[in-house]
Amino acid sequence: MSEREEKFERMLAFVRASYEAAVRQMQQLKAEGKTKTVRYRELMGEKLTYQNMLSIYRSYGLL
Fold first, then answer.
1. Prediction pTM value
2. How far apart, in whole angstroms, are the C-alpha atoms of residue 46 and residue 23?
3. Is the pLDDT of residue 54 over 90?
4. Which of 14, 29, 50, 62 is the most buried (most CB within 10 A)?
């Protein structure tokens, strides 16, 4: 595997892990009834950003 491919794989792992972490934190806040908080809204933005990145990877056949 080339250095470039290794870097991509590390980035992809980071994006996937960050997406999952945002989803988990949002679920926890939702269970606590804290969906109107600034943190929940920040997490929503992060989740959407990572979700969009994964969608682009899929559209290019990288996933």
1. 0.90
2. 9
3. yes
4. 50
